[in-house]
Design brief:
single chain, mainly alpha, 80% helix, Spo0E-like, HLH_DNA-bd_sf, Spo0E like sporulation regulatory protein
Amino acid sequence: MEVEYITDLDFKDQYHKLQTRMIHIGLSKGLTHPETIKYSQELDMIMNSFQKISHFTEEK
């Protein structure tokens, strides 16, 4: 089993790219467009995962 590590910088870069894409779609298609909502939900999942990982590593 291969373990993949993500650094804070990788996370921030990935998050920023998705956020920029979501903003672009939101401005061009509207904030309630399904594609905008999809990106928003992806960003929520990424942030939740990062917070869980951060919380876990802070406890150790």
